[in-house]
Amino acid sequence: MRIAIDAMGGDHAPQAQVESVLAAAAEWPDVHLVLVGDPDAIRPYLGSGIPDNVSIEPASEVIGSDDEPVRAVRRKADSSMVVAGRMVKEGRADAMISCGNTGALMATGLLVVGRMQGIERPGLAAIFPTLDNKGLLALDMGANMDAKPEHLLQYALMGSMYRSKVHGIAKPRVGLLNVGTEAAKGNEVTKAAYALLENAPVHFVGNVEARDVLEGVCDVIICDGFSGNILLKAIEGAAQSIFKLLREELTSSFVSKLAAGALKPSFRRVRTRMDYNEYNGAPLLGINGLVVKGHGSSNASAMKTAIRQTRTAISNKLIASLADEFSGK
User: What top-tier enzyme class does this entry carry (predicted)?
Assistant: First the structure.
């Protein structure tokens, strides 16, 4: 299998990308990893030699975080992101991973790789850490601000299959993000979606409130991109604020510092359980190829996690299974 890595996208590119590729290449010799980007920028981080299962695909341009997504994809045809997408489209790579501009990656998926037959609106999925350590797949996280009930149904089908194929969950529990657990709660879209999900070939467990999403009550949470993006950033912001508050309190006095020293191993374990590096790699589901979004601030460890999840998805034929599901085969 071949995975194209956008070596120029992200806060720590290309160093984090190259370091992760070298580590992944050593651990998984069955994967050929292609670093897409400026060879002169990539080579200094490769060391004395390139492993047999690593190569470079030249790309002379970079899509920046401030670039307008659609315009950048159309005008920067030789950017690392677009070249990686073209490799997937042409069958020269089984998947691509990028930590670059999220909007541009979605545009690359739609305009370069192409939408999967039968899918009306692709959705961006993300894994949240949960208290039961199983994680939660949430979609859509921002690919589409507005959604119809039929789109939420498709997200449920794709999300359920992803958790089954990539994470090995035999019967993923699917929940619908809502303002209450009762079936009659919500707006017109969620009420109509509830009825569709009740009759869908998924293990639907009903409405789930935002305060419960990290409790492990479901394996997949479905929502429109507007609500999903707010949920994602609210959870990230709350986690950062809690850790900041703890740090301030535990260093406020001598006694607090002594207590903090004793509790340091416990705090480290909590931080590890909530670390996005352990869950990095958000697939854009509904694209006719495997397109994966890494966190913009991904370090080498986080990038390796994304490569691992992508490798698993390819091995378990995720895209082929989704294509069969939505083409009616």
Answer: transferase
DSSP track, 138-190: EE-SSS-SS--HHHHHHHHHHHHHHHHHHH--SS-EEEEE-SSSSTT-S-HHH
Q: Distance between CA 321 and CA 159 in Å, rounded?
A: 12
> Within 13 A of 152's CA, how many CA atoms are on the CB side?
31
State which CATH number among 2.30.130.10, 3.40.190.10, 1.10.10.60, 3.40.718.10 fits the domain covering 1-119+286-329: 3.40.718.10
Angstrom distance (rounded) from CA 135 to CA 168? 12
The Cα–Cα gap between 327 and 329 comes to 6
Q: In this model, does residue 144 exceed pLDDT 90?
A: no
Q: Which residue's entry shows tokens 């510092």?
A: 257
At 119, list the tokens. Answer: 């899918």
Whether a cis peptide bond, with omega within 30° of 0, leads into 140 is yes
Assigned CATH topology for domain 121-280: Isopropylmalate Dehydrogenase (3.40.718)
Asked whether residue 161 carries a pLDDT value surpassing 70, the answer given is yes
Contact status, residue 108 vs residue 81, Cβ threshold 8 Å: yes
Peptide bond into 44 cis (omega under 30): no
3-state secondary structure of 10: coil
Looking at the chain, the domain(s) classified CATH 3.40.718.10 span 1-119+286-329, 121-280
Are the beta carbons of 159 and 322 closer than 8 angstroms? no
What is the SS3 assignment for 175-240?
EEECCCCCCCCCCHHHHHHHHHHHCCCCEEEEEECHHHHHHCCCCEEECCHHHHHHHHHHHHHHHH
**What average pLDDT does the segment 126-151 reach?**
88
